[in-house]
């Protein structure tokens, strides 16, 4: 029989390891829309539509290039509903001599994959996903060598490995590894970015949008605004637009937030990168070229490259290094249910409301919104990590567990006890006020510290610091804050704690069934 090559929904790469060196007349490619993947959490409608549409387009592209593609649609009457079930059916149909597959990105799916060799009579080959720059062996060796894992040092290794922004003498271009100090500009009045490239749904996407509306109509989020790139060509066009119009300001305004400006100068390429439509390393080379050609400043280019070969590779290595226990980590013992407003957007905190609106409309929010508004609130309010993890996995079109979980459990919630980040990203209303224009349109005031009308982030901040004093006081990056706390005196402290507690009492926990079927 032929070689059977299953390609998963986030492996839509022409140069995938399992396709390399295969001949077209001796291989059958298997692609599967399956109920299990579409529902293990109740993904945002746009996320499912994006993945199905991109899968269908990719299958078409492969067929046009002469490959045989066996494609199961979600509605096919005999659809077994799972990867393993569909593979079993395909093995019966094709009687392959070999199944060659690239390792799944997520632990859950990889567990299943590892059972295939025992389940099926034919030979199974699981190949390394070499679309990532750092191998797991490399990451593990790096991590096992040190007591503290810090992205910055990992990132330097990746700069050396790739040669990106490196000079012949082994020094980083411009003399520094990191230009973040130039990348914290608050938004000027009226700061607005060029419209991102949006792609009107073609007939394939429209069909998928209908399917999703039909079958997943009660999942979170809107389908109306769908405009994601669904093919490699469209993704390239989106990348072109970013390099032409937005990279210049990408660095300086990376941490800025403006109400109603959902993309600002971000690349909006994460969905395409994660699906496999764009090659992360190629994007980094393009960014470097933009700098060398004098078309983009070093701080923007270095920042962009760091997000990709630094953070993106780092969280993936960290995920596999820490699984499966990362899923259950809860170092701060956070127990509160996720507030209902994360799903409805119904809150009078203007910053949260805008971030949740963007999340619902676009299946996207940019990094600083995910980190310093939505994440910061979940941290300070002590929301149960598992509920926060489910939320992030559901709502973002770019969310796969390997990238979502480290960002949520470790980066925003400190649930790993500080393995990934050196301190919790906790901030009061002052930070959000400085980096955004949200507060001007809010019923609360960021300068009011406690009581009626005070920005809830202010008392929540001190409530958080106070309740985790024992752990955080020892942290050299945050411990000094307790001197300020102690100087306030008991009455002021009591004000903060009472304000926080009355606020926390008002939070309505979300009902069951939003993220997972009951
Ligand atoms: P840009 O700002 O243009 O950045 C360029 C690229 O860098 C991104 O496309 C992405 O590939 C990469 N990148 C940047 N930051 C990170 C990071 N922290 N981790 C990994 N890659 C990064 N990103 C996801 O792809 N999927 C997720 O599920 C996801 N969940 C997140 C959850 C939280 C709590 C936080 C704080 C961040 C999360 N991120 C996630 C990272 C980041 O927010 C998104 O990658 C980014 O907002 C995507 O938009 P963009 O393409 O415009 O990014
Ligand atoms: C996220 C997702 C969804 C919603 N549906 C499918 C699907 O029907 N078929 C498929 O191959 N992949 C899907 N995916 C992406 C997978 O969840 C993702 O490829 C793996 O989980 C990565 O380990
Ligand atoms: Fe958010 Fe507080 Fe500003 Fe309101 S005042 S927008 S709640 S930071």
UniProtKB/TrEMBL annotation:
This is (6-4) photolyase. It comes from Qipengyuania flava. It holds the Pfam family DPRP. GO terms for molecular function: lyase activity. The gene is phrB. Residues 166-193 are annotated as: Disordered. Keywords: Lyase.
């Amino acid at each position: 029989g032929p070689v059977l090559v299953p390609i998963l929904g986030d492996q839509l790469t022409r140069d995938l390891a399992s396709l390399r060196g295969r001949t077209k007349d001796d291989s059958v490619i298997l692609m599967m829309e399956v109920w299990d993947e579409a529902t293990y959490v109740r993904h945002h409608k746009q996320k499912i539509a994006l993945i199905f549409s991109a899968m269908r387009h990719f299958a078409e592209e492969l067929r046009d290039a002469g490959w045989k593609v066996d494609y199961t649609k979600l509605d096919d009457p005999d659809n077994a509903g799972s990867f393993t079930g569909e593979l079993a059916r395909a093995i019966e149909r094709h009687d392959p001599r070999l199944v060659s597959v690239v390792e799944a990105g997520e632990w859950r799916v990889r567990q299943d994959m590892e059972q295939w060799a025992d389940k099926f009579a034919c030979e199974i080959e699981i190949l390394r996903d070499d679309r990532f720059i750092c191998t797991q062996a490399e990451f593990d060796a790096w991590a096992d060598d040190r007591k503290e894992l810090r992205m910055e040092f990992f990132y330097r290794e990746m700069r050396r490995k790739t040669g990106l922004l490196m000079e012949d003498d082994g020094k980083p271009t411009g003399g520094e590894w990191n230009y973040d100090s130039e990348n914290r500009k608050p938004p000027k009045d009226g700061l607005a970015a060029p419209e991102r490239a949006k792609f009107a749904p073609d007939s394939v996407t429209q069909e998928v949008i209908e399917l999703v509306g039909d079958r997943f109509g009660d999942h979170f989020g809107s389908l109306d605004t769908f405009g994601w790139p669904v093919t490699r060509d469209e993704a390239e066009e989106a990348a072109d637009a970013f390099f032409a119009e937005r990279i210049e300001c990408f660095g300086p305004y990376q941490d800025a937030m403006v109400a109603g400006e959902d993309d600002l100068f971000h690349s909006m390429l994460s969905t395409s990168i994660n699906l496999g439509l764009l090659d992360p390393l190629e994007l980094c080379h393009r960014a470097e070229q933009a700098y060398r050609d004098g078309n983009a400043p070093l701080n923007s280019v270095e920042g962009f490259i760091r997000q990709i070969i630094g953070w993106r590779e780092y969280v993936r290595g960290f995920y596999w290094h820490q699984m499966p226990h990362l899923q259950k980590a809860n170092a701060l013992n956070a127990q509160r249910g996720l507030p209902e407003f994360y799903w409805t957007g119904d809150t009078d905190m203007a910053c949260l409301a805008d971030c949740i609106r963007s999340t619902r409309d676009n299946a996207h929010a940019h990094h600083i919104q995910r980190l310093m508004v939505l994440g910061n609130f979940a941290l300070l309010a002590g929301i149960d990590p598992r509920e926060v993890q489910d939320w992030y996995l559901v709502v973002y079109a770019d969310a796969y567990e390997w990238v979502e979980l480290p960002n949520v459990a470790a980066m925003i919630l400190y649930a790993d006890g500080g393995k990934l980040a050196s301190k919790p990203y906790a901030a009061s209303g002052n930070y959000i006020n400085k980096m955004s224009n949200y507060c001007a349109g809010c019923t609360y005031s960021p300068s009011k510290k406690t009581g009626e009308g005070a920005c809830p982030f202010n008392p929540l901040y001190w409530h958080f610091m106070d309740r985790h004093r024992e752990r955080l006081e020892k942290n050299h990056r945050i411990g000094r804050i307790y001197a300020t706390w102690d100087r306030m005196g008991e009455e002021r402290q009591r004000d903060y704690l009472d304000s926080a507690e009355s606020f926390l009492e008002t939070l309505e926990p979300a009902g069951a069934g939003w993220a997972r079927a009951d």
